[in-house]
Design goal:
The complex is a heterodimer. By secondary structure, chain A is α/β, with parallel strands linked by helices. Chain A has one domain: Glutamate synthase, alpha subunit, C-terminal domain (Pectate Lyase C-like, 3 Solenoid). Chain A has an 11-stranded mixed β-sheet. Chain B is of the alpha+beta class. Chain B folds into 2 domains: about 200 residues, 4-Layer Sandwich (Glutamine Phosphoribosylpyrophosphate, subunit 1, domain 1); about 70 residues, Alpha-Beta Plaits (2-Layer Sandwich), CATH 3.30.70. Helix content of chain B is about 25%, strand content about 30%. Chain B is built from 8 helices and 16 strands. A 7-stranded antiparallel β-sheet of chain B has the order 7-2-8-1-14-13-15, covered by helices on one side. A 5-stranded antiparallel β-sheet of chain B has the order 9-10-11-12-16. Chain B has a 4-stranded antiparallel β-sheet with strand order 4-5-3-6, with helices on one face. In chain B, strand 9 and strand 10 form a beta hairpin. The radius of gyration of chain B is 18 Å and the shape is globular. Classes of the chains: A alpha/beta, B alpha+beta. Chains A and B meet through loops of A and loops of B.
Chain lengths: ~230, ~300
């Protein structure tokens, strides 16, 4: 295992070292110590490596991730795993606003709570949250799944497209065009797989499913007065 | 952007280190706003006396014999200590209004940064590191304090545009965000007779809170009504003689992190500002909820959700 002291060696050295890891690298396990809330830790990775960050991170940790597993042993700042393409990002603590925003793929697991705008404009990522998520989560979410074992804040899934939201607890309010939908057997099966992937201690049958009512997809002349 | 920090001490043994800890926190936030910086420290109370912290761009001439001249005019005790462009005038509590009137007569270019029994505000254009050095902030002790480093968006980079803003006796405000209805609100407040000096949006926010409190609201009520009357983005940190309060607008896109231990309650725009505080590893760390007023006070047993009343 390679250990990297972020405070001593600096962010640029860390990220360029991690970027230099090729597809077939032998250095597959990395540990970052003294993160101290620094920004942009382990962004833009593109190799099947595992990076353990021993502490809390600042803005944009593990952004644009491909293939890699980034495990934050603390809480994460705004924009964690933003625009992730593939791989896995795990946050042991809480995640600040817009975690997993615009993510195209991969899995983001947040073991604490996620703040506002979680999964905003997500495009295929799976986001699994053990706790609660904040207001305006999944705004304009296009595809992918959000699993929330706790509660969701105001305006869940406002103006969403084909993303699915599974919430076990309460939803403070649904956003425009977001509705509760029937849980069919294929959704239970899909959710069971997501809960297992996220290491959640929850039963799929306890969840409700939400998604787009698809009434905003086409212009409706009756709404013309609203513009 | 802008960076905000705040530290409320529960453990008296940390009080001599307040200025030092707060300076470290603020310097860490420098890259959120390098235009100007300011710090408000709530220090020791002086029996029956009040403090006026004043600023001048020409301190050599303005502060020369200022204490003697004021003493003659108000016919009371005046003690002055000069720190760079600022001076703290210690005067009798019942002579504050008189002293301010006299001051604007004899030194019209001197600006009042703060007034109160324990509050001192120091702010200038420049980096937090330099501002803290100029005013020896590291040496200051106190019960609580707040700091701000500014990236100007709404108005000029000047001393008067720097935060914290004094909103009333022993009250001050720092702001991260931008208010979008400050012009109309400024006109409204000016019509009501509220003095607003600059074109700065935060000064309007500060004046609004002052006006609400002068017309019968508690600080908690004033902060609650700011959620309805102020349009735009804000994370406010408000200092009072006994503690500090936090409120974020309902959208809450301006960051805020809090940490609490048995020794202190700390606020930072980012977690980075808090990482060197003692015992931070075991602190309870969380983000304040949007549109929720939080308050901590030395007056009563502090609880996280306590509302100022």
């Amino acid at each position: 295992m390679q250990t990297f002291d972020l405070e001593a060696q600096g962010l640029r050295a860390l990220n360029s070292t991690l970027h230099a890891q090729a597809e077939n690298t032998n250095q597959t396990h990395w540990e970052i110590i003294n993160p101290k809330g620094s920004h942009a830790i382990a962004v833009g990775l593109d190799a099947p490596i595992e990076v353990n960050v021993k502490g809390s991170t600042g803005y944009y940790c593990a952004g644009m991730n491909k293939q890699a597993t980034v495990h934050v042993h603390g809480s994460a700042g705004p924009g964690t795993a933003e625009n992730m393409m593939s791989g896995t990002v795990i946050v042991e603590g809480d995640a600040s606003q817009y975690a997993g925003a615009t993510g195209h793929g991969g899995t983001l697991i947040i073991k604490g709570n996620a703040s506002s705008r979680c999964g905003i404009s997500m495009k295929g990522i799976d986001i699994i949250v053990h706790g609660n998520i904040g207001h305006m989560s999944a705004f304009m979410a296009q595809s992918g799944n959000i699993v929330v074992c706790g509660d969701a804040g105001d305006a869940l899934g406002d103006s969403c497209y084909e993303a699915r939201f599974f919430v076990r607890g309460s939803v403070k309010s649904l956003g425009a065009d977001c509705i509760e939908k029937e849980m069919r057997p294929e959704h239970i099966k899909m959710l069971e797989e997501l809960l297992e992937r996220g290491g959640c201690d929850a039963k799929a049958s306890e969840f409700k499913r939400y998604g787009s009512a698809r009434t905003l997809y086409n212009f409706d002349v009756d709404n013309a007065a609203a513009y | 952007m802008c960076g905000i920090v705040g530290l409320f001490l529960k453990d008296k043994s940390l009080e001599p280190k307040l200025g030092d800890m707060l300076t470290d926190m603020l310097v860490t936030m420098t890259d959120r706003g390098p235009d100007s910086a300011g710090i408000a420290i709530y220090g020791a109370e002086t029996d029956g006396n009040a403090k006026l912290t004043v600023q001048s761009d020409a301190p050599e001439t303005d502060f020369d014999k200022l204490d003697n001249e004021l003493r003659k005019l108000v016919k009371g005790k005046v003690k002055m200590s000069v720190k760079d462009t600022h001076a703290v005038l210690e005067i009798q509590a019942d002579q504050v209004a008189e002293a301010r009137a006299a001051l604007s007569d004899i030194r019209p270019s001197v600006r009042v940064m703060s007034h109160g029994e324990t509050l001192e505000i120091y702010k200038e254009v420049g980096l937090p590191k330099n501002v803290a050095e100029r005013f020896d902030v590291r040496q200051m002790s106190g019960t609580h304090g707040i700091g701000h480093t500014r990236m100007a968006t709404e108005s000029a980079v000047t001393t008067m545009g720097a935060h914290p803003f004094n909103t009333g006796s022993d009250q001050c405000l720092v702001h991260n965000g931008s208010l979008s209805n400050h012009n109309s609100l400024r006109r409204k407040l000016r019509r009501l007779g509220v003095h607003i000096e600059t074109e700065n949006d935060t000064e309007v926010g500060a004046a609004y809170l002052t006006w609400k409190m002068q017309t019968g609201s508690t600080l908690g009520e004033a902060l609650e009504s700011s959620l309805d009357d102020l349009d735009g983005f804000f994370t406010f940190l408000v200092g009072t003689k006994d503690g500090f309060g936090v409120v974020r607008d309902p959208i809450a896109c301006k960051p805020a992190v809090m940490a609490e231990t048995d020794q202190y309650v700390a606020f930072g725009s980012e977690y980075r500002a808090l990482v060197n505080l003692p015992g931070i590893e075991d602190a309870r760390v969380w983000e304040p909820e949007p549109a929720t007023v939080y308050f901590w006070s030395h007056n009563a047993a502090p609880t996280a959700q306590e509302k100022a009343a």
